[in-house]
């Protein structure tokens, strides 16, 4: 199946290159620019499609800092093919159309060696199919489960948890607490996919979920909070990200419900200090990827120390966003670089095979489980990679647990 697909992709790539040459682009259909690879004189280059301008510019800039921190770590560890690697950040403006346009341009200029195909899910879903047609090696922090399809995206690897893994962590927590009925509040449109996944996963454990949505531009979510509480849930889940989160938190403070409340990883990925004061989180438990919680075991590894030192240097010690914002693109660069390093090649098939067989010891700087396979190109974030804590504020972009 893969052999047939590669033959078809090669034909598509050849056609694209021919068209590019006809337009004077000078592109080639080689797997890397001349002189790249073992013994070559050109560096291994990673192209990153990030929103450096537009509505999410501040997030894109933080993600670029995470990527540059990874470049520093890889280069301090000998680089790739004995040379420092190169990062090329391309501004998409946070727009999926621009992401697709830049993906086409990258392919037309000659197949890139590795690409981070976007910053948010919509951009990734626009760019990834175009890059997959050209057989490009990709690394992404998109949590969309459909991206984990080695048949459709044979050279795409995820570097963060999938939405269903986050939902499974919630399901395990709620099952242990004996919760049977959930009310979940999320943002309209942007939160629908995540809420749907949580509802489906919880249902497999016999837990029902009522979903209430809040407009993205809401300044008051009191009526939606009351609606969620009227169903008399065993537990309330705040699942929004970004602007609606403050309105949802204010509504909870105003109504002061006597019901256990959790914030999902989606919620805790945001800027918690801007959502509300520490006192607003009283009585809540926050779900978080473990490396974003200060003092967690996963933050005591040499790999995390290398990351933390590098990101503090890159930001001048000013970590203004959640740890997740820096880690995701850091991991993207780490995985792409070590794919070429372990394969000793820029051939996408060889890079893919190297990551499918990689052990944690072979990618010591990757922040997360290294358990990829031919069937799954995303890491499996098991229970040890999740934490449920009470919020005691933020320090160095990490949650300070008040119940430690």
Task: Please give a quick description of this structure.
The protein is of the alpha/beta class. It has helices at 2-22, 57-76, 96-108, 121-133, 163-177, 192-203, 222-230, 244-255, 265-268, 272-275, 302-315, 323-343, 348-356, and strands at residues 45-50, 86-91, 114-116, 138-140, 156-158, 181-187, 208-214, 235-238, 261-263, 284-289, 386-389, 391-395, 398-401.
General description of the model:
- This protein is an alpha/beta fold.
- It folds into two domains: 2-162 and 302-382, Rossmann fold; 163-295 and 386-401, Rossmann fold.
- 41% of the residues lie in helices and 15% in strands.
- The chain is built from 13 helices and 13 strands.
- Strands 7-6-8-9-10-11 form a six-stranded mixed β-sheet, with helices on both faces. It has a three-stranded parallel β-sheet with strand order 2-1-3, with helices on both faces.
- α2 packs across α12 (323-343) and α12 (323-343) crosses α13.
- The radius of gyration is 22 Å and the shape is globular.
- 49% of the residues are buried.
- The model is unreliable at 1-30 (pLDDT under 50).
Write the layout of secondary structure elements.
Layout: H1 2-22, E1 45-50, H2 57-76, E2 86-91, H3 96-108, E3 114-116, H4 121-133, E4 138-140, E5 156-158, H5 163-177, E6 181-187, H6 192-203, E7 208-214, H7 222-230, E8 235-238, H8 244-255, E9 261-263, H9 265-268, H10 272-275, E10 284-289, H11 302-315, H12 323-343, H13 348-356, E11 386-389, E12 391-395, E13 398-401
Parallel strand pairs: 1-2, 1-3, 4-5, 6-7, 6-8, 8-9, 9-10
Antiparallel strand pairs: 10-11, 12-13
């Amino acid at each position: 199946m893969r052999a047939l697909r590669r033959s078809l992709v090669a034909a598509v790539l050849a056609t694209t290159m021919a068209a590019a040459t006809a337009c004077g682009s000078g592109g080639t259909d080689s797997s890397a620019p001349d002189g790249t690879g073992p013994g070559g004189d050109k560096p291994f280059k990673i192209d990153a499609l990030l929103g450096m301008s537009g509505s999410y510019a501040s997030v894109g800039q933080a993600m670029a800092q995470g990527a540059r921190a990874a470049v520093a770590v890889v280069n301090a560890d000998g680089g790739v093919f004995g040379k420092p690697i190169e990062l090329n950040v391309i501004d998409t403006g946070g727009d999926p159309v621009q992401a697709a346009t830049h993906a086409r341009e990258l392919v037309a200029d000659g197949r890139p060696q590795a690409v981070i195909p976007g910053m948010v899910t919509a951009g990734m879903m626009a760019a990834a199919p175009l890059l997959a047609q050209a057989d490009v090696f990709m690394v992404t922090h998109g949590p969309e489960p459909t991206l984990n399809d080695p048949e459709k995206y044979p050279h795409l690897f995820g570097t963060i948890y999938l939405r269903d893994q986050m939902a499974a962590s919630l399901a395990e927590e709620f099952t242990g607490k004996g919760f049977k009925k959930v009310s979940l509040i999320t943002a309209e449109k942007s939160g629908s996919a995540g809420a749907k996944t949580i509802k489906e996963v919880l249902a497999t454990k016999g837990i029902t979920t009522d979903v209430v949505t809040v407009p993205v531009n809401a300044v008051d979510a009191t009526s939606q909070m009351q609606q969620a509480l009227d169903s008399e849930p065993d537990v309330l889940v705040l699942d929004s990200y970004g602007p609606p989160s403050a309105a949802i938190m204010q509504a909870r403070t105003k109504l002061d419900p006597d019901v256990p409340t959790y914030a999902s990883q989606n919620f805790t990925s945001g800027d918690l200090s801007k959502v509300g004061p520490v006192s607003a989180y009283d009585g809540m438990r926050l779900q978080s990827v473990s490396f974003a919680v200060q003092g967690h075991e996963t933050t005591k590894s040499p790999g995390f120390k290398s990351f933390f030192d590098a990101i503090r240097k890159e930001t001048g010690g000013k970590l203004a966003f959640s740890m997740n914002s820096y880690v995701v693109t850091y991991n993207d660069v780490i995985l792409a670089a070590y794919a070429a390093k372990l394969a000793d090649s820029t051939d996408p098939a060889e890079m893919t095979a190297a990551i499918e067989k990689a052990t944690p010891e072979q990618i010591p700087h990757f922040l997360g489980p290294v358990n990829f396979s031919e069937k799954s190109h995303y890491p499996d974030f098991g229970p040890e990679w999740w934490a449920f804590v009470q919020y005691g504020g933020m320090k160095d972009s990490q949650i300070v647990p008040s119940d430690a």
